[in-house]
Specification:
With about 270 residues, this protein is an alpha+beta fold. The protein has four helices and 16 strands. An eight-stranded mixed beta sheet has the order 2-3-4-1-5-8-7-6, with helices on one face. A hairpin with a 5-residue loop joins strand 7 and strand 8. The longest helix has 12 residues. The chain is globular, with a radius of gyration of 17 Å.
Length: about 270
């Protein structure tokens, strides 16, 4: 696989990962849905195995296998880039967030930490090595589109977008823009004028979902066909395909219950 020096602007969504119990079955699911191939690489402790999903020669996501005794809720994790994981971890604590894991060195993934914002939404920070893999498709595609199977959008679903925006701006230096239509509580996080993530406040509706959380969107050629394929592969559809400002979206889960969205972007 081609390697190149990858340096994302601090605050840019730069990677997504998932911890699972059945690594083989999970590879079958995402390979069947997105066409990913997989390469095994050394993973962080205490994972018993770790692979990277590869699409057209580009690494797009990491999937690790948890030890059998670790029965944890499973979710896709969005990682935000940093030039100094230790300094960013301290900033997270100072701004009211929590650092649950790390920072620690993980070999191929550089120096990382897992944190949560004051509302409890979990995210990662990632300080890349001087030389990294081909890199993920996340980050610069917030308002664009990618190939089928690429992560193209990162969205925080929370109680109040403005309150969450204050935390992320303080830690990462984002410019925060109100972009909701018809009174919707939506903010866009920008770096150097470029949109990199969305914050969506849903008020009391948050209690009907799974608490404050980051959502990963994967590009698909056909949202309706992808939702059907999810069920054929053993997953579930939570929210049926619908039209949004971002494009046609469906929210689904894999067979182990990890939630994500599939989208045919409006920019395509």
């Amino acid at each position: 696989m081609t390697e190149a020096a990858i340096r994302h602007r601090p605050g840019t969504p730069c990677w997504v990962s998932l911890m699972v119990h059945g690594l083989g079955a999970t590879q079958d699911f995402y390979g069947g849905l997105f066409g990913w191939k997989f390469v095994r690489v050394p993973g962080p402790e205490p994972l018993s195995a770790y692979v990277r999903g590869v699409l057209d020669g580009q690494e797009v996501a990491g999937i690790g296998q948890l030890p059998p005794e670790r029965r944890l809720p499973l979710a896709w994790t969005t990682y935000l880039a940093t030039d100094d994981a230790d300094m960013t971890a301290e900033a997270i604590r100072c701004c009211g967030g929590t650092v649950g894991v790390g920072p620690l060195d993980t070999g191929v993934d550089g120096r990382v930490a897992i944190a949560s914002d004051p509302a409890g939404a979990v995210f990662g920070i990632r300080q890349a090595q001087a030389r990294a893999g081909a890199g993920s498709g996340t980050g610069s595609l917030e308002s664009g589109a990618g190939a089928h199977g690429m992560p193209v959008r990162n969205e925080l679903v929370t109680h109040e977008a403005a309150w969450a925006g204050t935390f992320y701006r303080s830690v990462f230096g984002y410019d925060v823009e109100t972009t909701g239509r018809d009174g919707a509580d939506v903010l866009t996080l920008r770096l150097d004028g470029r949109p990199v993530a969305t914050l969506r406040g849903v008020g009391e509706g948050l209690e009907r979902v799974r608490g404050s959380h980051w959502m990963t969107y994967f590009e698909v050629d056909d949202t309706d066909a992808a939702a059907l394929r999810v069920t054929e592969l053993g997953g579930h559809v939570i929210d049926r395909p619908r039209e949004t400002a971002a494009g046609r979206v469906a929210t689904v889960t894999d067979p182990e219950g990890a939630v994500f969205s599939v989208v045919r972007s409006a920019a395509r």
